[in-house]
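Researcher: I'm preparing a figure for a lab meeting and need a structural model of a single chain. I don't have an experimental structure, so a prediction will have to do for now. The sequence is pasted below. Please return the structure as tokens so I can convert it later.
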Amino acid sequence: MEAQANRVMALSEWEERWQEGRIGFHQPHVHKLLEKNLDKVLCERKEVRFFFPLCGKAVDMKWLADKGHSVVGVEISEKAIRQFFEEQKLTYSEEPVPAIPGAKVFKTSDGKIALYQCDLYKFSSDVTGQFGAIWDRGSLVAINPCDRQRYAALITSLMDKTSKYLLDTLLYNPELFKGPPFLVSDEDIKSLFGESCDILFVESTDAFQERHKQWGLDYLTEKVHLLSPKAN
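Model: Understood. Here is the structure written out token by token.
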């Protein structure tokens, strides 16, 4: 991790990636590891409120809403948010967010999906309350490593007592690729969330593809953990 400790991406760089269409991280289908492990997240609960940090235009959001759940996402790129609604053929409205100066929220007409266009760290439970589930794919691995403690504090503050946090991370040799996405080890997860959450390893899978050779990598492992708030 030392190789990546000082790597910093400005918010403007992420916005540029969306503007230029350099979004190789976007997946056009529902993530298999979410689909496979959804029952572990739901625990037989209905109409669960999901939080998507750095949501992009993830199709998983529409998939969950179609199953009767509600989704709140946060994303810096307005283009990503508008593309989500347009590509999913959803009518939406937009309005300012009084609690976050300069922020906007984009909502479906039924209110099942609400996406906040703002800096993630300006978001809080004061805006929307807490959540019963969090799907973190491409978020913890995307934030600057120096911001991880701040990120973990925000995520745990958004979890209600019954919350299930499905966390998707990547393992590879950080000497070969500077990121993002960044390496997040099991030790990192324990360091960030171990005091506040019970951490269950769910599964790992070989995620290496031909395009990852261009990153200079020779392996890429995707891992999923399920985190739950510790009982007080």
